[in-house]
């Protein structure tokens, strides 16, 4: 009787509502997957429903061992996802801000700029800054979020120094060169003034560094300031076309301060030597820094691959190689490319121009998309300059993934690929950039399920609206078939039980 009372309008409303609900779930699931890289329903099921259903027993020793192992892996992933200062970072005023003026887009994220502020406080301040008024002003300036407030504070510090006839404040010139200067030439002029002030501060603190911990900290700060200024001056020379001068400045800086490897000046040197096409010196630098005991980077691995490819790329032909096989030199080049791709699999798409480049961030994540952007932004021209190098890369780079079918579980020449790179890169890179993800994630089951459910119910709603009588017959036939086993069981029970007992059961 209930089925006979249902009208076609009921079926239209039922299927339409089901389609709407499943469509909303699909939209939310897709948005959540694009933002966080996982399914919301799957995450809730694993995190909350599975423990309620008894899927995890925290009291068992095996599970405690498992949890300890997961904690170790989490600690390892956190250490692997350490963010590094980009050794080739651009100038905010002369480059990043000019991009914003032209395009209206912000190339730097708040997270990236906040990391830079922390770096500046670490490198350019010390505990004794409050004893000197200008340094106290700069200590506050580095903490300011507003760029105009930082620039105003730097001018105030310089005016204070001039009025007191004291030594010029080197860090104030650094801030103005980085953020206020609108051209590289203007930034270089300010850095030269900073160099003059920084050298005098460095010589003064060098004589007093052994007089106590306070003087030692001040000398360490003055050393960081001097190294930073000289490195940025070398980068100004490189950007203004005086590459040989830049190379000399970098070599002198590395000889004068050999222990300050945190600035990664050798990566600036490699890029400048490649611009001069001085490949013998590039090989000499790689021989020193491409060591198993030293941390790797995309610059080290891909520059080594470029030098190996340069020896064979001009005569390389995939057809000829498939017929006769690879020579020893070609095999070495291919292995070097596979090694580089294993370290950072995002770089080839930028070098082969399969993915558009953006301005590199001020901080990078090694083996991540941010490092790939920073490398390709400066080194794409060097790969193009070597005849056939990009062709060799195009023919061989995807073979790396056949050697490492499960990169998150096991590596070949390096540790397994860290699972945290996507999250960190999304924080470092601007919203308008589509972050490269490795390994490529498949769509979760629940997105496919809700997409199918939404499409199916929408089709039923449309058919019911167009052919109400026919779909009503189909619906009644389907429901009758669905409930046929239940009706059969009820008839059997009625035939077995006495009529009085059956009437009591039906009444209940």
From TrEMBL:
The chain crosses the membrane at residues 12-33, 443-464. Residues 57-78 are annotated as: Disordered. It is a multi-pass membrane protein. It is found in: Membrane. GO terms for cellular component: membrane. InterPro entries: ST7 (IPR007311). Residues 69-78 have a biased composition (Polar residues). It holds the Pfam family ST7. The keyword Isomerase does not apply. Keywords: Membrane, Transmembrane, Transmembrane helix. Residues 58-68 have a biased composition (Low complexity). It comes from the Eukaryota. The keyword Transmembrane applies. PANTHER family: SUPPRESSION OF TUMORIGENICITY 7 (PTHR12745), SUPPRESSOR OF TUMORIGENICITY 7 PROTEIN HOMOLOG (PTHR12745:SF12). Belongs to the ST7 family. This is Suppression of tumorigenicity 7. It comes from Dicentrarchus labrax. The lineage of its organism: Eukaryota, Metazoa, Chordata, Craniata, Vertebrata.
């Amino acid at each position: 009787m209930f089925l006979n009372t249902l009208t076609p309008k009921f079926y239209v409303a039922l299927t339409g509502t089901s389609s709407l609900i499943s469509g909303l779930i699909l939209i939310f699931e897709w948005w959540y997957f694009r933002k966080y890289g996982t399914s919301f329903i799957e995450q809730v099921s694993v995190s909350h429903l599975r423990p309620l259903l008894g899927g995890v027993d925290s009291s068992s020793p095996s599970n405690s061992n498992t949890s300890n192992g997961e904690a170790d892996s989490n600690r390892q992933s956190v250490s692997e996802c350490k963010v590094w200062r980009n050794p080739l970072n651009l100038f905010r005023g002369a480059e990043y801000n000019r991009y914003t003026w032209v395009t209206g887009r912000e190339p730097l994220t708040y997270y990236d700029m906040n990391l830079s502020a922390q770096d500046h406080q670490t490198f350019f301040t010390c505990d004794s800054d409050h004893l000197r008024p200008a340094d106290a002003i700069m200590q506050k300036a580095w903490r300011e979020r507003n760029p105009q407030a930082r620039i105003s504070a730097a001018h105030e510090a310089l005016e204070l120094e001039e009025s007191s006839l004291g030594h010029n404040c080197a860090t104030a010139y650094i801030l103005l060169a980085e953020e206020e200067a609108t051209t590289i030439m203007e930034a270089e002029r300010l850095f030269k003034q900073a160099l003059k002030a920084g050298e005098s501060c460095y010589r003064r603190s060098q004589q007093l560094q052994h007089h106590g911990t306070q003087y030692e900290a001040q000398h360490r700060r003055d050393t960081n300031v001097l190294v930073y200024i000289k490195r940025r001056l070398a980068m100004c020379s490189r950007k203004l076309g005086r590459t040989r001068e830049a190379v000399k400045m970098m070599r002198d800086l590395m000889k004068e301060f050999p222990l300050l490897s945190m600035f990664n000046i050798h990566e600036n040197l490699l890029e400048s030597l490649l611009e001069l096409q001085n490949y013998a010196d590039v090989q000499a630098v790689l021989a020193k820094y491409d060591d198993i005991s030293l941390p790797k980077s995309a610059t080290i691995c891909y520059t080594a691959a470029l030098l190996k490819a340069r020896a064979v790329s001009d005569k390389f032909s995939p057809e000829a190689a498939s017929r006769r096989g690879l020579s020893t030199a070609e095999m070495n080049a291919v292995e070097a490319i596979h090694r580089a791709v294993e370290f950072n699999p995002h770089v080839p798409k930028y070098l082969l121009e399969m993915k558009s480049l953006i301005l590199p961030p001020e901080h990078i994540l090694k083996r991540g998309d941010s490092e790939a952007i920073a490398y390709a932004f400066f080194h794409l021209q060097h790969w193009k300059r070597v005849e056939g190098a990009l062709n060799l890369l195009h023919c061989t780079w995807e073979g790396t993934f056949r050697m490492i079918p499960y990169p998150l579980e096991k590596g070949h020449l390096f540790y397994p690929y860290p699972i945290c790179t996507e999250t960190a890169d999304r924080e470092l890179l601007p919203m308008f950039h589509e972050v490269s993800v490795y390994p490529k994630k498949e769509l979760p089951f629940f997105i496919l399920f809700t997409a199918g459910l939404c499409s199916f119910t929408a089709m039923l709603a449309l058919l019911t609206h167009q052919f109400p009588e026919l779909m009503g017959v189909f619906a009644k036939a389907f429901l009758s078939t669905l409930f046929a086993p239940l009706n059969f069981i009820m008839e059997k029970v009625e035939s077995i039980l006495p009529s009085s007992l059956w009437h009591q059961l039906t009444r209940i």
